[in-house]
Structure formats: C-alpha cells, structure tokens
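Ops channel
N.P.: pipeline sanity check, posting one input/output pair.
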C-alpha cells in the first residue's frame, strides 16, 4: 500500500480511509491532528503559529521536519543575545 498517490493523481475520498494514520509515540493511539498555534521552546522563546502534530488523546506535540525548519529560521532571525554571556557567568562563578 502506498501513502502517496501514484503518477501525481489525487487521492479519492474512499481511498483516503485506507492510508494508515500515524501512531502517537507516547500513548500509541492513532489520534494525531495538525495544529497551528504558538509553541514555547525550552528556553522560553515563543514561536508564533507553529504548524505541528498533536495527539488528541494525550496532547503530546510532535515536531516534524517542516516545524523544525521554521524553528531554525526563527532562531536565525531572532538569535539569543545574552545566552553565551549568561552561561559563561554561571560556569565561572562555580
């Protein structure tokens, strides 16, 4: 079974049911949907309107390659200004 149409033909609605949905890596349910909303990175940086997958069951968020590309582009446009200085001060204070 192919997950994409052959020869560039569109997928018919009755064939779409046959394409297996991805399972959530956390809970294992087939409940992933696409969402587009703000996302906060570990360092507190907020990426507005990031398109990503989210499990409807456990709310786990999965970042695919396009989401990672958006994050990388955002980082290039908005670099952390004092991150290296703050890390250096913590290391030298210890």
């Amino acid at each position: 079974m192919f997950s994409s149409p052959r020869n560039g033909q569109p997928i018919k609605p009755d064939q779409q049911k046959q394409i297996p949905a991805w399972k959530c890596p956390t809970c294992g349910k087939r409940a992933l949907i696409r969402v587009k909303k703000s996302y906060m990175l570990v360092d507190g940086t907020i990426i507005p309107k990031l398109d990503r997958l989210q499990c409807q069951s456990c709310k786990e968020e999965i970042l695919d390659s396009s989401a990672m590309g958006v994050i990388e582009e955002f980082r290039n446009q908005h670099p952390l200004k004092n991150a290296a200085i703050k890390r250096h001060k913590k290391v030298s204070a210890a």
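N.P.: looks fine end to end. Residues 65-77 form the longest helix (13 residues).
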